[in-house]
Amino acid sequence: MMKSLPPKWAARFIDWLTEDGKYADIAGDLHEDFIANEESKGIGYARKKYVWTVLLCLRPFILREKFHVNNSQPLMIKNYWLVSRRFLVKNKLYAGINIFGLAIGIACSLVLMIYVSNELSYDRFHQDSENIYRILVNSKSQEGESTSAIITAAIAPTLKDELPEIVEYTRLSAPTDGFLSIDDKKLNVQDILYADSTLFDMFSFELKKGDESTCLASPYSILLTPTLAKSLFREADPIGKSVSLNGEQSLIVTGIIKEAPTNSQIQYSCLISFSTLEKEKYFLDWNGGWNYFAYVKLAGQTDIKLLQSKFPAILDIHINNMMKQFQIVWSLELQPLLDVHLSTLEGGDWANKGSRLLIYVFASIAIITLLMASINFINLTITQSISRLKEIGVRKAIGANQKMLVMQFLFESFLYTIIAMALAFLIIIVFYNPINEFLGYHLDQIYLSNLWLTLIIAVVILLVSIGSGAYPAFYLSSMSSLKSLKSKSAHGPGSKPRRIDPLVVFQFFISIMLIASTWIIYNQLQFVQSRSLGYAKENVLVVRLNSKQASKNIRNLKNEIFKIPEVVLAGASSDIPGSGFTANGYIPEGQELPLMLHVLDIDDSYLETMDMDIILGRNFAVGNIPDKTSFLVNESLVKTMGWSDPIGKMINRDGEHAIIGVVRDFNYASLHEVIEPMVFTMAPWQDQYYYLSVRIQSDDLPASIEKIESAWQLINATEPFEFSFLDQEFDMLYHQEQQQAKLLLIFAVLAILIGSMGLFGIVSFSLKQKTKEIGIRKVLGASALNLILGISKVYILSIIVASALAVPLSSMIMRKWLSNFYYRIEINPVVFIFSVLAALVIALVIINIHTLLAIRKNPSESLKYE
Amino acid sequence: MGRASIGELEELLLLGIASLVPEAYGFAIKSLIQERANRDINLSAVHAALYRLEKKGLIKSQFGESTSKRGGKKKKYFEITAAGVAAIRESREIRNELWSGIVPSVLNYA
Predict the structure, then answer these.
(1) Are A462 and A421 within 8 A, CB to CB?
(2) Which of A53, A239, A280, A310 is most buried by its number of CB atoms within 10 A?
(3) Where does the pLDDT of residue A1 fall: very low under 50, low under 70, confident under 90, or very high at 90 and above?
């Protein structure tokens, strides 16, 4: 039998711990125990047991032996404790500022670290998550290329059939909204997904009721989440019952599936078997029905590169030979499941996406905050410890050796750091809900017990306490007792407040950058919200038409709604401006190859409802049969084609379409994107409009909405009324930016707060050192202004240095950020001037509160000091 | 101060040492007790208790040879001292007295 050894690090550790001492037999016993365990219960158990036992060996009696701790130590620790406490009480203000500042810094960075670690944990809960990949389709044409995660349905099954490396595949439809009903109960539901029966082989979602292998097998099966099941069926057992989707499909409940964890890219409220789509005759071939996500699981140790090199041959047969005539080439890519959450794709993707940039920003903010707070803490502690030279001298004179002094100072700084850490946790716990609300994110409290975080915290405590304790501990205590007894603290080493302090510069640098950046982001957001979009987004109520029936009833609904006096106008469309419109290939007159054009299907009153202008030609007219095949186009298309007289020009897609009018350009997507060429038709795909936009003029909004709802009930009794406001949807487009702005604002305030506290501490300390100097200057006739200038000079200089660094850097970063928007503001230099001024004012206020107090003291008093 | 009182594990250890002498070292003692008492004891707990007993003066120890089975580490042999013998004797007497006080019929319950 091969001789196996216990884990090396643990063996080395126990050797180090017990070597050559009284307890030198322990390591050997452990080794024997390991061998015995391996024989009886296997290597895995033996190793685990060994490590555990080694950890259990960290007992006081062993540690005491190792570190030669003698029995007088507890007494000394008692004394350190006493002295630390006295010092804390005597210097309440400094110590308070010091500890509180560190606590805020730790709390802030902890919150961000929790956020970051949650973002990084996405989808890791799936078993074998590193073997799961998502299929991406890249299509290259003359106009460029695009990669999409939302692909056609036939790709994944074909790949599995032809490539043995692919063990399993699962397809999911892009989430849709709809309504479920039983009898007369109706419920609007978001995130309805169709899923292949292999879902549970691929993903570790938890099925609470039902059979994993069969519940999604037969057509018209549906799995409900517990919440949904409860609101549909109350306490009754839903299994085997039937529900109807959008009043059209009748589905049988075959299971209850637990909600997906929040850190899952896939989110659902119910899952319907994929085979239902086949029965319903959806487009499920290679080139039609771009509506599905496809995941594959690979056999362990598959060479991805080799596997991907086999794709082109398969693609040639199934699609590319056919697409040659359009000069379009497809290629496939496998994207690791774990990369999905933080990747960005131009094409559609799950809504629940993170941003890698944001993670970097958050992580660096976390580190900077922690750094600022720690440096501040260290700096303040060092400055204060100088005033304790005498104490050191006395201690030495009565027999303390250097080791004891080192112990004392390290003990103290350790104590303060621990207090700060405890305070930080208290802050997080107290402000847990507001923090969540503010971030618009759910921080899981569980992450507070995360092993990594614990480790980071321990390291921070250690570094900060050693950093702040090292100077007094090693440098001051090494001075001869004579020297330290003689030295006046005011002239002690390191107390030269006249130099420019790099720490102060750093803090102003950060503060100025943050003030300026936050300002610019707010300006841009304001610009985005106030910019004229080419249509009026205010007072537009958008009603969702989920079913074909509702879309068919539209004329009746409009008639009914027009009876309400508050309703100005209403019009139907296939999409609403904001999220962007679908694009198809069209061949305009004078063009050989298809051009990707955005398309919006509207009815005759839509443009007018939205205040979109027709600048040339005419609108669609009801009852005009040729208009069903006519197109309207936007200005951008006319410009792209270079047409001088667009009316009457033809566009080809499944037949010729004549242009009857030109619409003024409007922003149909967010202002991140430029306005591209688009067409309008009055013939929606599958004859279905999805939205009815209603412009209302009302002083009592809820009442008007109620009236519209009763009109809806009259026409569409079986379908629930679902509405939103266009301007609210519009605000959602900038949700991420708003969140960033909020976060930066908070961080700016925190940075200024921490910086101010640091400054406050440093200034008040240096003033204390200068008590005598100020007294003498006053006696000699210096004015208050003179004194203030003399003291603040150095800080003003620091701010100038900091601005010189911060202004160019932040303007560079903000330019980069603004380049995400196609429509954006120019950076106004005033922003920087005011940011610097703000920092200056804050600094001067802090300095002068103190200075004024110090210089108003009677010189006779200050001269007596010390 | 009276005689040091001993706990259950300590008593078992003392008995184990006494029955293993002169081959009583940490792992051997642990194995014996684990086997006889049929329960899982962590080696570290055994060490802690052994050194506690040594401090109380109930056992004494000396280093012995090292073997390859131990990764080349020394053994430490434990021996029971007179005080140790007195301690297990006393605890046995206490038990005996208590046993003899039990009415036989009580023991028929199983």
Answers:
(1) no
(2) A53
(3) very low
pLDDT tens for residues A421-441? 889 888 888 887 777 777 666
Between chains, do A28 and B51 touch, taking CB under 8 Å as contact? Answer: no
Helix (H) / strand (E) element for A807: namely: helix A784-818
The predicted structure's pLDDT at residue A491: 44
Smallest Cβ distance to B48: which of A25, A36, A61? A61
Residues A610, A611, A612, A615, Cα dihedral to 10°: 160
Q: Please name the residue of chain A whose CA is at the shortest distance from the CA of residue B70.
A: A28
Q: How many whole angstroms separate alpha carbon A834 and alpha carbon A520? A: 12
Chain mean pLDDT for chain A: 83
Q: Closest-CA residue in chain A for B28?
A: A29
Q: Can you tell me the distance from the alpha carbon of A573 to that of A579, in angstroms, rounded to the nearest whole number?
A: 14
Q: How far is B41 from chain A (nearest CA, A)?
A: 11
Question: Which pTM was predicted?
Answer: 0.63
Indicate whether this complex's ipTM tops 0.95.
Answer: no
Residues facing residue A523 across a β-bridge: none
Sign of dihedral through CA atoms A545, A546, A551, A552? negative
Bridge partners, residue A225, by sequence: none
Q: If we measure between CA atoms, which residue out of B16, B88, B20, B47 comes closest to residue A65?
A: B47
**Cβ within 8 Å, pair B27-A29:** yes
Sequence-ordered list of residues with C-beta below 8 angstroms from that of A638, at least 6 positions apart, any chain: A646, A662
For A591, list phi and psi in degrees, rounded to 5. Answer: -125, 140
- Which of B26, B45, B63 lies closest to A26 in CB terms? B26
Distance from the Cα of residue A580 to its chain's centroid: 23
User: Could you tell me how far CA A172 lies from the centroid of its own chain?
Assistant: 25
> Between B25, B42, B75, which is nearest A56 by CB?
B42
Please give the single-letter amino acid code of residue A572.
A
B74 and A28 in contact by Cβ < 8 A?
Answer: yes
C-alpha A540/C-alpha A727 separation (Å) is 8
